[in-house]
Design goal:
alpha/beta, binds magnesium ion, binds ligand C2E, 284 residues
Length: 284
Amino acid sequence: GYAAQRGLKWHLNDGENRDADERELTLLGELDVALAQEEIFVVYQPKLALESDTIVSAEALVRWNHPTRGILSPGMFVEAAENNGRIIELTLYVLNVVLRDLVVLANSAIHISAAVNISAKLLGDSDFLGRALTMIEASGVPPSQLIFEITESAAILAPADALTSIARLRDKGVAISLDDYGTGQSSLAYLKKFQVDELKIDASFVRNVHCDGKDRILVRSTIELAHEMGIKVVGEGVEDIDCLEMLRTLKCDIVQGYLISQPLIAHRLRDFVLEHQDTYKIAV
Ligand code: C2E
Ligand code: MG
Ligand code: MG
Ligand code: MG
């Protein structure tokens, strides 16, 4: 039947999380098949630069078109992949798709950057780094068109190796972005330790920046701090125009969120960028 065909793996576990564990393991067993059968796909969320009012980049967000469960968001499988050694293959798969899509966009004279989410767990992994750099080089895409967004959710396992990785990537021209900034326990420590190009203020601080005084202080001072260090700032999760205008007032460089666009499949991203090529105007 279906389970045998997809090579599902079950394990015995008497704990109360048995069902959840089994679901996770089942998914992981299927992930290899999903990668082989191209059930994994990527959507892109545009990032709007406020000074020029143009789309300067797009963030790649992974999705799994599962044959029976429908479209799964990364929350359903990324963490499991991180904990079970599949994150390398998943990330390289996404990177490969992104490079291919950038080549297609270049054929339409679109040269925006693409951001790929990289688990902190992968940062110091020399196998990952070597394969990623080889892939980028083989694609012909200028490394300067890539941004690696590092999330704090998983701890950096080998900070010294991570430091070397970041230096190598930046040396090639790949930009480094700190994702979900402010939510981790080591945000300032990261800024002290790692040379980064961009910082993405988490949606939880951005969402109410126009109506919450405390959020405004946190966002304003984070932007000042970043700018003093030569780092660009992205506001994530921008859902309304008042929020965007406040971020503009606070000199935030880039905004991203449902107000600008939902994540789009590659050809819709192309249309979106072409539509807003000269200057971006929000339809309100
Ligand atoms: P993230 O990198 O912080 O990505 C932003 C998430 O917020 C995305 O959810 C996006 O769809 C959602 N979002 C964007 N704009 C808005 C908005 O205005 N309002 C609200 N409420 N949400 C918004 P998504 O796609 O479910 O991704 C969740 C997380 O999964 C990402 O957070 C990222 O940490 C991780 N992720 C996504 N793709 C990959 C991947 O290829 N590899 C790895 N390692 N992690 C990934
Ligand atoms: Mg991200
Ligand atoms: Mg984020
Ligand atoms: Mg996030």
